[in-house]
Design goal:
- This protein is mainly beta and 417 residues long.
- It has a four-stranded antiparallel sheet, with no helix packed on it. Strands 21-20-23-24 form a four-stranded antiparallel sheet, with no helix packed on it.
- 14% of the residues are buried.
- The chain has four domains: 45 residues, no CATH class; 68 residues, no CATH class; 110 residues, Immunoglobulins (Immunoglobulin-like, Sandwich); 93 residues, Immunoglobulins (Immunoglobulin-like, Sandwich), CATH 2.60.40.
- 6% of the residues lie in helices and 40% in strands.
């Protein structure tokens, strides 16, 4: 630090003017400072607005997710009640990026990154144009391509109609019509950006076809027939061995238990068709059903002369009988209404420990009723009283559940006046 001067008129050394802070503490006495101070340099920051010509800033990114925007109109997804963007695989969509200045294609670079995370802003539709390819495993462990099914995925896509309980076919909103020019272009685009063209699935030439016919409406607890059809399209005899397997499956398609196993050996004359029938009895599957009551049949065949492999599979959702519901008399606001619920046991055995749930009776929780047993072919009839507290349309729903029979439901539309 400095020493005090002897004369009052002595000259003072000018203090340095620097930007920063002192390295040492300032003098806390009355003595004058006549030496150059040491400062820690901070550096100078530019003042005023930045030069917009030197920077390229992303101001906004618009993926046009609204129903009236171009993406949902071109992809036919505007009717879905979803605020996010819904696009179809293999079809282009538009993105608008707003920047701070004119974009120079030669100098400026722009990176666009799509992240697939849990809360994805882009929702890609399911794969509805895929092929089913069956592979044969050889004794040495190698795989040889067998039968190929090109038209079994994406046949029918359904949803619930607006303000109705009916179903609506929306297949054309997920995919183009099979064989159309738009469908071919979408497939070529998917192959170009995904699977290499030389690895694309192609049809396998076969002179023998295998098909399986199952009744469309099979009521749970009844017997039915599975027809296996073998058609020889060649001018020579064909000897074939066909294996049929029937399983009870979960809703995911995972087998639970095999209920039927059949082997068919036959020789088909040239350009002829052979049909074999396999009978499925209710006692084979009724004790093994799970929630969705689905049976799955898988049939594979082998041609002795050519070594061709034939494969076909069918899923059979069994029809579950519904409960009958009706109201005795008109439904009036503030007046007691009687609802009658009836259900007939379709199985050839009694149902035990039944639980009936009724919802829509102006109560917070569904009402439960317990029944110990329902004999074979017997009808369960119960009545429920409630007082409507609101006018207008309403729905009462009932469900019946037991270990041998699942998802038995019934519903009743009421117009409360």
């Amino acid at each position: 630090m400095s020493e005090p001067t002897s004369g009052g008129s002595s000259s003072r050394r000018p203090l340095a003017s620097y930007v920063g802070r002192r390295i040492t503490p300032s003098n806390n006495s009355n003595a004058e400072e006549n030496e150059v101070l040491d400062f820690e340099y901070f550096g100078l920051s530019p003042r005023g607005p930045p030069n917009l010509e030197a920077f390229l800033e992303i101001w906004s990114v618009d993926i046009h997710p609204n129903p009236d925007d171009v993406n949902k109109r071109q992809h036919h997804t505007a009717l879905y009640d979803c605020s996010n963007l819904i696009v179809r695989r293999g079809q282009s969509f538009q993105i608008t990026i707003t920047v701070s200045r004119a974009f120079d294609v030669e100098k400026d670079k722009l990176w666009i990154e799509f992240l697939i995370v849990y809360e994805l802003i882009l929702i890609f539709c399911f794969k509805v144009n895929s092929d089913i390819v069956y592979w044969n495993r050889q004794k040495d462990g190698s795989l040889i391509k067998g039968d190929v099914k090109t038209d079994e995925i994406g046949k029918l896509i359904l949803t619930k109609e607006i303000e109705s309980d009916n179903r609506k076919d929306i297949t054309d909103q997920y995919k183009y019509e099979e064989g159309s020019q738009e469908e071919r272009m979408a497939l070529d685009t998917a192959i170009q950006h995904g699977v290499k063209k030389e690895q694309a699935v192609t049809d396998v030439t076969m002179d023998v076809s295998l098909d399986m016919h199952v009744p469309e409406n099979v009521l749970l607890g009844t017997n039915f027939i599975v027809d296996v059809e073998l058609q020889n399209n060649s001018n020579e005899k064909r000897s074939m061995t066909v294996f049929l397997s029937g399983n009870v499956v979960f809703y995911t398609g995972v087998p639970k238990i095999e209920i039927k196993k059949e082997t068919i050996k036959v020789t088909v004359e040239p350009n002829q068709v052979h049909r074999a029938q396999v009978r499925i009895k209710s006692k084979d599957y009724v004790d093994h059903l799970v929630e969705q009551s689905i049976l799955h049949f898988f049939s594979s065949g082998h041609v002795d002369e050519t070594g061709q492999t034939l494969v076909v599979q069918k899923a059979v959702p069994l029809l579950i009988p519904r409960m009958n519901m009706r109201a005795e008399g008109p439904a009036m606001f503030g007046h007691e209404v009687t609802i009658v619920i009836e259900f007939t046991n379709p199985l050839r055995k009694p149902l035990e420990h039944l639980v009936l749930r009724i919802d829509g009776l102006d109560s917070r929780k569904p009402k439960l009723k317990l029944f110990s047993i329902l004999p074979e072919n017997a009808t369960l009839t119960t009545r429920e009283l409630f007082v409507p507290r609101k006018r207008g349309q309403r729905k009462v729903i009932a469900s019946l559940d037991c270990s041998a029979l699942r998802q038995v439901v019934g519903e009743l539309e009421l117009n409360v006046t």
